[in-house]
Amino acid sequence: MKNLIFVYLLLLTIIGCSDGKELLTNNDPSKYQLEENVVWASPAGFDLTLDIYSPVSNRGSYPVLVIFHGGGWLINDNSIMDQMSQYLATNSEYVICNVNYRLLSDQDNSVTLDEIVEDAFGAVIWIKHNISKYKGDNSRIAVTGDSAGAHLSAMIVNSGTNLSSDEEFRNNLSFTPTYLPNGKTAEQASKENVLNVQAAILSYGAFDVYKAGVEGLESLKNPFWLFSRSKARGVFGKEYSPINNPAMYKALSPIYNIPEREEKILPPQLLLVGSEDGLTTPLSVKEYATKLESFGQETEYWEYANRNHAFLDSGSNLFLGSSFEKDAPQALDKMIDFLDTVFKL
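-> structure tokens emitted (345 positions)
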């Protein structure tokens, strides 16, 4: 069954993804100003960029929504979220930041999963430090993402104070953000809670990297390695495995890092999943939502009837008979309503 799910996702990627440049009925460029390919960090000379959509109405500043794309940490870039970004910029008043991060397959297939999390952390810190230039209010920030992007968003929410200047994740299971302002250490950033956000929207997220590792994430059972033209390997390097090094994989799994409310109050979270999703199933997402609630955290769960995985992606999918314009708007309107409630707009 799992192999069939992965084959389906491969077909989804091959057939369903477009570059997001087609004529849209849910995009009005007159409502926003777009800054594309803004470089926010360059780890080892590898430029990381984001696209920023700023409302053109007359308010002084706006809340910010940060988007992380999906693709199993192996494929895609932020263009897969272009239509989502355009829809949100057209139908709401938020500064939208559509972020690129490194993939496992980048830098000669040497990137590790902890480094991808550090990219996500760094992107949020860069945005907080710079977004006022684009009309954004850095005290009102929400994060979102789908699939692997939801994982990154959940890591920001759950583990954003677990920072260290020691760049050897294997030694301390802590993170060194890819970007920090000049003169600020990771420890200072942790003490100041610079990764604090006010809301999170997690769409069909992958919340248990440990379990995924046991079930074949690092092997050719996961054909995204093949599709990314990369050799399957351990996400931390060949010498590590979930069986021998479970703590490393669990440190990257949001489901094992939910704080008790008495310890830390997490922001309101909206979890979405399609009722027919065979990869990140409604059962797995509901399990995460239930665990958040059991720790006293504010959570809303929404199951999208008759939809499968990746209903927020740009373009259309002939194999599934789905398309962004048909399937995404209802979910995006749900997200806008959630954010408007949190930010009292």
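The radius of gyration is 19 Å.
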